Amino acid sequence: MRVIAVIRKCTEYERDLILSSAENDDRILFFDNEKEMLESGELHNIEIILGEPENSTIRSMDKLRWIQMTWAGANKYTSVPGFPDNVVLTCASGAYGYVISEYIISGLLALTKSLFLYREQMKNGEWYRINGNDTLEGKRALILGTGNIGQETAKKLKCFGCYTVGICRTPGREYPCFDEVYTAEYSDEELQKADIVIIALPGTTETSGMFDAERIKKMKSSAVFVNVGRGFIVNTDDLTNALQKGLLKGAVLDVTDPEPLPAAHPLRYMENVVLTPHVSGTTWGENRSTRKRIIEIFCENLKRDSRSEPKRNIVDINRGY
Question: What's the average model confidence in pLDDT over 263-281?
Fold first, then answer.
């Protein structure tokens, strides 16, 4: 018998999905949040959690052996030393590519078609053509990160006529959605060719500060920069300076460092920047399609766990993803 805790508020349909994937003798405890779990008196019985318990909670759980996250990024746990060796951590990679790739496309189109400037016209009662409207067709898009988000973005960009180039960590894999794929040592060379640069990388010690002034200078002044990875991958001051000096055409930023930016930060007031508060992936309560994919990953892993098979999306704590 397994004791399983779900610490995310679920619909009846979502509960039924989870229950249908469990063994007959499993005990599944549904809580709306971690606080309810802590107050339940079950903490020392629970073996499996769906959700993101605090590190202090994890350390107090005697029988915990597996956490299935509802997030794709795991740096809540990988960035803090001391995660228990006996606890398997799996993430929700594969659930967010659809919605985040839509965000990327919408941001690029908004800049390319000057939609925010026309929105200001509408509010001000003005009516005139803005010079510089462009198209995505024929653009070379460099996507750093060839995981689910990178692949889904490449697929959508190809529908708009973009030429897609991916940067991956591990050579040898095939990625049909990319026209070309290179390993990380070719990043700087490819940056010089790209019209669009998209960061879809996890936040790790290796990627922290990866985009500084020197690397940004390698990009075309006509390039648009997109970050949906982690804010600390990019040096915010260096990116701000580059945009102020016209070294980049624009930016789409769902993540920043710090987060949120100070109220008076220049990035908040630039016409060529789309800035959003870390919403490209949406949270658990906002998108049922994403939630369904997360639960399907959890249900698949529940079945694998019952058969003692390797789970999907196991996070390497040392590598950070």
Answer: 96
